[in-house]
Every structure is written in structure tokens, then in C-alpha cells.
Design brief:
Layout (H helix, E strand, L loop, with lengths): L3 H4 L5 H14 L2 H9 L3 H19 L6 E4 L8 E4 L4 E4 L7 H14 L8 H16 L4
Antiparallel strand pairs: 1-2, 2-3
């Protein structure tokens, strides 16, 4: 079961990868429906924790750091540290809300969907979000 406490537990990059896949693979059918709709903690699991997971494993393949994910208003979403250095990470994930919701609903109801994402719009939103976040004073 997906819990806030477990999501925010400090882990090595490999432990974070193992945790991510264990949660994903053990989700019940009801949890998978919520996950597709990105409801509750599943929104953070897919939009932020998954990105932090990939980044941490790319950045520190030797597992010589601790990765910590945080939900809150601290100005960053994650932290990678090794005792002598700390990297704060702000994660941004572009979304096509209505299209994604329609696709998730169709998959939950029928098991498939023919909704095709508007990639040009996704790129525009990605650039817009990155620009907006670059103006923030964290």
C-alpha cells in the first residue's frame, strides 16, 4: 500500500528503485484505477517520485548517497546527500490533464484507450512550466 511515510523515507538510489517497483507491482486493482487517474498519493508517486527515482539512479549509480522525497512547501521536492554535499531538486512534470483523465477513465472502464496525447501542447506546457519555475526564488 502506498503511504506518505514510506514515500518520504530516505533511501539509496537502488533502494528507491526497488521500493518504486515493489509498490507499483503490488498495487491492487482498485489502487491501479486510482493510480491511472493520479488520485491522492498516486499523483505524487508518478509525477514526482518516479522522476526523482530515475534521476537519482542516473546521478549516483554507485548508491553512495541517500535520496529523500518530500511533499510540502519547502521549495524543493527531493534531496540527494552524502554527508558532505546536499543537492535540492525541484521536479516539474508537464500534464495534459483532461486528455490524461479521459484516457485513464477509458482504460479503467474498457481496459484500453485510443486517446492520443497532443505532443506539441505537452512540449509547450513543459517549456512554460520550466520558465515559470525558473523565475521563482526558492
Amino acid at each position: 500500500m502506498l503511504t506518505l511515510e514510506e514515500m518520504q523515507k530516505p533511501r539509496s538510489p537502488q533502494e528507491l528503485m526497488n521500493y518504486f517497483w515493489a509498490v507499483y507491482e503490488s498495487a491492487s486493482p482498485e489502487e491501479r484505477q486510482l493510480a491511472r487517474l493520479k488520485k491522492g498519493l498516486w499523483k505524487y508517486f508518478f509525477h514526482e517520485l518516479s522522476v526523482l527515482n530515475i534521476y537519482a539512479n542516473w546521478k549516483s549509480p554507485n548508491n553512495d548517497v541517500l535520496v529523500e522525497y518530500m511533499i510540502g512547501n519547502q521549495g524543493y521536492d527531493g534531496m540527494i546527500s552524502n554527508g558532505s554535499y546536499v543537492e535540492h531538486i525541484e521536479i516539474s512534470f508537464p500534464s495534459l490533464g483532461e486528455q490524461e483523465k479521459q484516457e485513464a477513465n477509458e482504460i479503467n472502464l474498457k481496459g484500453y484507450s485510443f486517446v492520443k496525447p497532443d505532443h506539441d501542447e505537452l512540449i509547450r506546457r513543459f517549456i512554460s512550466t520550466a520558465d515559470r519555475k525558473s523565475q521563482k526564488d526558492y
